[in-house]
């Protein structure tokens, strides 16, 4: 990570993109285990921590809130979703259609985050010219 206020948005976007990448792996793992008896689907939580970090500051503007975020505290956590629930008699709770939809949505989110990072660097290059 780059330690300068100029890169605050880039640093937060990078953490979000990293979390989205981890979520992609977790969702792919769920799909790979769709036929494994007793397997419980997993998911990733990053958005809750980001919302908490943005709300915990006293600042009013988004720029000031993003600047106040300590990105080292924004961690990706993997959790088991609905561990007591199962779609099938074998104890597995993975629905292939739901996982495919979540995977596609996550890929769109990841691409948007990468585009946003690229836009931030384009803006910086424009300012430096």
Quick recap:
With 129 residues, the protein is mainly alpha-helical. Helices cover 57% and strands 6% of the residues.
Task: Supply database-style keywords.
2 strands; elongated; single chain; 57% helix; mainly alpha; 129 residues; 6% strand
What's the SSE blueprint?
Layout: H1 8-32, E1 42-45, H2 47-55, H3 62-68, E2 77-80, H4 96-128
Helix pairs in contact: 1-4
Describe this structure in words.
By secondary structure, the chain is mainly α. The chain has one domain. The chain contains four helices and two strands; from the N terminus they run αβααβα. It has helices spanning 8-32, 47-55, 62-68, 96-128, and strands spanning 42-45, 77-80. The protein has a two-stranded antiparallel ribbon. α1 (8-32) packs antiparallel against α4. The radius of gyration is 18 Å and the shape is elongated. It starts with 7 loop residues before the first helix and ends with a helix.
What gyration radius follows from the Cα positions, in whole Å? Answer: 18 Å
- Number of E-type strands: 2
Give the oligomeric state of the chains in this entry, treating copies of one chain as homo and distinct chains as hetero: single chain
Described by strand count, sense and barrel closure, the largest sheet is: 2 strands, antiparallel
Number of helices: 4
């Amino acid at each position: 990570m780059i330690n300068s206020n100029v890169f605050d948005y880039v640093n937060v976007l990078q953490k979000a993109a990293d979390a989205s990448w981890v979520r992609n792996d977790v969702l792919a793992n769920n799909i790979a285990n769709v036929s494994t008896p007793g397997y419980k689907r997993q998911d990733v939580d990053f958005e809750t921590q980001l919302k908490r970090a943005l709300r915990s500051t006293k600042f009013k503007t988004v720029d000031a809130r993003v600047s106040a975020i300590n990105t080292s505290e924004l961690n990706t956590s993997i959790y088991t979703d609905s561990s007591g629930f199962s779609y099938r008699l074998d104890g597995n709770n993975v629905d292939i259609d739901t996982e495919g939809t979540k995977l596609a949505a996550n890929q769109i989110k990841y691409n948007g985050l990468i585009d946003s990072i690229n836009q931030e660097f384009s803006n910086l290059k424009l300012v430096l010219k």
